[in-house]
Design a protein that fits this description.
Layout (H helix, E strand, L loop, with lengths): L12 H21 L9 E3 L2 E3 L8 H15 L2 H14 L1 H4 L7 H17 L7 H19 L2 E4 L2 E4 L7 E3 L7 H8 L4 E2 L5 E2 L1 H16 L18 E5 L4 E6 L11 H20 L2 H4 L5 H21 L38 H17 L5 H18 L42 H18 L15
Antiparallel strand pairs: 1-2, 3-4, 5-8, 6-7, 8-9
Length: 460
Amino acid sequence: MKINFDLNPDHFSEILENFWKLSGAKIKLIDREYDPANGSPVFTVEGKYSTRGWTEWTQGFQYGSAILQFDAANDPWFLNYGKENTLNLMAPHVSHVGVHDHGFNNVSTYGNLLRLMREGKIPWDDWERNFYELALKVSGSVQANRWTEIKDGGFIYSFNGPHSLFVDTIRTVRVLMLSHLLGHVFQGEGDLKIDLLGRAIQHAKATADYSVYYGKGRDAYDVRGRTAHESIFNTNDGNYRCPNAQQGFSGYTTWTRGLAWAMCGFAEELELMEQLPSKLLDSHGGREEIEAFMLEAAMATCDFYIENTPLDGVPYWDCGAPALHKIENLLDKNADPFNAHEPVDSSAAAIGAQGLLRLGTYLEKRDQEKSRKYWQAGLTVIKRLLEEPYLSTNPKHQGILLHSIYHEPNAWDHKPEKGRAARGESSMWGDYHMREAALYLSKIIRNEQYYTFFACLPPF
């Protein structure tokens, strides 16, 4: 991609004002038109949200979007909508033992509401605070119980089973950290106390070791910064076996949304590690060791994104997608969501942009040159997504971010023309993360408290 080094947050003031107006209208449109009896909305078909019964992992993004909208626009309708639906509909996600998505669903709703209370954006209420905290405490324990021991640690396994480590989970593991830091005690058989922070750090280490590549000759496709969507382990002896893919083209190519989850997850967890008292980290390897492997993973994945994405910073759905060779000069021009061969994935761009910005901020006092590179790359990506053809300006389309892809190998995405790439649709996670990136910038422009997932915690 070509990084625009001339951008600064002030360039986004008017653009973001327009974005939040469009965003609010989309949320109200979904409320009017979507029947929640159908299940969680996942992605659009001809501009209308539909569901897909795979796992229940997107409802928190729906109501979390309304909470972010309130934070940005201060319209109480969105707060009430987000609160009421969190209360009435999100409890099953707290106790859902069948998914690895707790940090998506529950941090986006209960976590954001608790953060607003801590920041003074909504009135303080002890009972309400306890309710949000209890949800996060339980959610962290439920997710932590999906645990597979391996020879050098362990990981939270995916819905595929105990053998399966998904790169996605690096951004949901944060709920274990919140649960621990809220003082929760997770207990197993025989009242065995299980360290939630320890499990979160072990999972992050397994992801850094097995999901991220570093160009050290691990296999014939070991390119620094690329990621494998799934890592397979032998659960009998704890040995790593091979890379795999569920939503990517193969285990030896890089599914770009998985790459983006790693970029964002490692960057925001670095922000938390930096704030924690050293004594909390001493028994888990120590601050220096933990921050070193997280930083290496964050920088490698962000560098890969920058080096392997078209000029405007919007990636195609997989860096090894089989028909990419038919697109001439792929990396020397802007991504083309209307091409006939392979779809772009704007949701990967929205997630990855936040990772770039957060890593740039983290490095500000450590390496100013690299800090500026990542920060400006993040601004470049967001600038592109806030423009057409990615910004959805059609008042009848329920999505805010166009050209998002869900599952290309399963052919789940709507194709308006036979024989051409899927395009023109939105996803609930893409819309949420576009709003989250926009809120991140909005708060910086307004000189408000820096936006983190752990701002819902009391001071350390």
